[in-house]
Amino acid sequence: MEIFESDAYQAVLEAVEKAEGRMAPKKRLAVLAALDCFAEYGYDGTSTKLIAERAGIAEATIFRHFPSKRDLLLRIAAPVVRHILTPAASREATELARQHAGEPRLILREVMLSRLHFMRVYEPLVKIVLQEILVNQDLRAIFEREVGGLFQQIAPIVAMFGPKTDLDRERFFRILGGLLLGYHLQRTLVSPDHGWSDEEEVDFMVGLIFDGLNATT
Amino acid sequence: MEIFESDAYQAVLEAVEKAEGRMAPKKRLAVLAALDCFAEYGYDGTSTKLIAERAGIAEATIFRHFPSKRDLLLRIAAPVVRHILTPAASREATELARQHAGEPRLILREVMLSRLHFMRVYEPLVKIVLQEILVNQDLRAIFEREVGGLFQQIAPIVAMFGPKTDLDRERFFRILGGLLLGYHLQRTLVSPDHGWSDEEEVDFMVGLIFDGLNATT
Amino acid sequence: MEIFESDAYQAVLEAVEKAEGRMAPKKRLAVLAALDCFAEYGYDGTSTKLIAERAGIAEATIFRHFPSKRDLLLRIAAPVVRHILTPAASREATELARQHAGEPRLILREVMLSRLHFMRVYEPLVKIVLQEILVNQDLRAIFEREVGGLFQQIAPIVAMFGPKTDLDRERFFRILGGLLLGYHLQRTLVSPDHGWSDEEEVDFMVGLIFDGLNATT
Amino acid sequence: MEIFESDAYQAVLEAVEKAEGRMAPKKRLAVLAALDCFAEYGYDGTSTKLIAERAGIAEATIFRHFPSKRDLLLRIAAPVVRHILTPAASREATELARQHAGEPRLILREVMLSRLHFMRVYEPLVKIVLQEILVNQDLRAIFEREVGGLFQQIAPIVAMFGPKTDLDRERFFRILGGLLLGYHLQRTLVSPDHGWSDEEEVDFMVGLIFDGLNATT
DNA sequence: GATGAATGAGGTTTCATTCAT
DNA sequence: TATGAATGAAACCTCATTCAT
């Protein structure tokens, strides 16, 4: 139970409550336990019985609040993707661009660090989304729409970094996503005990992005 | 059935047969169908009944050839990761480095294109491994060992690209992996209809890696 | 909701209120919705959740007013069978026999029409009783007792139609019941769109009963 | 188990096997137990667990042979209604009409006795069909089509009994059905201990039908 | 009087796996 | 080698019912 009090879980809970409204106590427990189990065993590898046990509630209680297991997944994952990813990311990027106007390296650095922080906070959910997005059409659709929207909103900022055509801006945006995802997977899944310093790694990546290997190393 | 004749499936089949020896016809069908289903629905989302139906064989026949469903997964995924990923990749990288000695950009370009080609050929398997690696300890262990080994073997080539310390070489290796994975997911999962040109995308990435944004665009 | 205002439902409601006393508004809604659902899906095929939804009330409200689902069924079905079937039928038959003394054909005709009218009015309940009587001992007991009592009370009228022995009177009574039930099922369940004229059908049946096929047709 | 050896169950089994082909032993047991339970408790009142227990097989075995509980019901009830009711009844009626040509009373008597015998033999199934027909659209559709077909085939025989118009023939056919059903319900459900003599009851009914009450009693 | 929340028991169905043939 | 038949365990979900508010 105490696990549930970590930042990672509270952040997801808040996002879900933004969509569901104030939730009954046992409904909250169901959400937290589901989040925990899905992240650990995957959606299909998690039984509703397990969720109920981990939440300390009756299995039937889950179904009072969510019509189906699939629905439970979507009602947990969607709000984070929907309400947090796009608006928060674009608002933040805009703000950072304003603060550090004229210093693109700093902007990029801060944006990357903030996105990595976000992924850390929502770590279990990132894992779930990553897993399910490969097989779940609904989740994929939500994700694609949001990412598309995000790009539209921060394209001007991307432009500040140099890419002159729309195509190149898209490429840069994609590459940035790939870099962040790749690094996040490394630090959380592949080598969680490596003693990562986000700052150092981001500095390396920013250097690479702006100056290339030749200048960097 | 005809789906099974695509390159993607034949390549996996070959890899599996390298480990299993020549397989009985229905065993091959089982492997192909399992590959297909796992890629579409994930391991847990696939029932042995579904595999049997898609293979046009009896469910029991699967268990004649594989002691369990989990074993079926590993005996499909492991050989590709084990026998193909590391030796093939390192041999190929070495060969390319020799061919284009003194032209690091060309080496990187060819290595990236070749790795992307490999991921395309083994597309369903890449999807399966990606999904299962998040929850399956066995597969994760195999994967990590292989990737570690691969780095050891091609570290000298990485060094040719500039990074001077071991730490920086690891970083570069990781970043490269992230870029390739990110791009592969884009072209196969997120926007499969986008009309991608691997050459152009790789050229952009190589440019970025060597010269950075400032010079590239 | 407006469905509930049909004669069929109001008649049952009245009968139930004769036993329950004036009912709270939501209790009435529960009764009406239960009647509706039981007739449509059968007792076992109806969940209390469905009843609550159709009534627009909370599931728990049903249990405020009725200790159990089974009780709900009996408290709806019993009054109609008990308070309406026997006394009303026998009173009416007696009255009709008095009115049309010496004209047995007319008496029978009016009795049959009136019973068919009754079954039409209580149509959903007839369906419920018919269904449940096949498996529900309680309801069967109530029904049998009432039908037995009814026969006792109208035996003299049956005698007017000709049957001389008790045995023959019983037979006639049974046959009459079979005819009415058979016709009612036809017009409501099997071919509800046939455009039935109760008068014409009853005239045919009365003709058959008194004169037989030879004379009738 | 021995219950299953009664004529009633063997007759249904035969009819089902005509549609299913030779059945595996446990499939037969499943059919017999389902028949038994449905007749006793109704479709919804019967759990698949109960069926399995009564059949002495595993619950999962039922679902190996029938995709769903609903399917099990239909695959038991439909063949009897479909393959037995219409062809058998019309063939038999035709044969009886030939045998007793010129003696309509005898024909009717024999037809009625034979239909009552049929209903006795298929008693559990008659009960199931009667119950389910009230709420199950599929079964109702099958039943209506068959009864319609039956009427078409034996209309000439009905004509022999007197009714001159098509409308009157239909009426007579319906009335006959009502009489038989009413009597069958009496003797099996309402008063099974009454000591019924089908012959005597049929004689009374035939008398009524041909001569009417006036002449009969 | 009414209800939202909760649940234990049980529903149908699916699962991976075994075995006789 | 291959399979049809079989199954115990467990899956997701629904049930009638209780209770605090």
From TrEMBL, chains A, B, C, D:
Coiled coil: none annotated. Residues 47-66 bind DNA. Keywords: DNA-binding. InterPro entries: DNA-bd_HTH_TetR-type_CS, HTH-type_TetR-like_transc_reg, HTH_TetR. The keyword Cell inner membrane does not apply. Residues 24-84 form the HTH tetR-type domain. It comes from the Bacteria. This is TetR/AcrR family transcriptional regulator. It comes from Maritimibacter dapengensis.
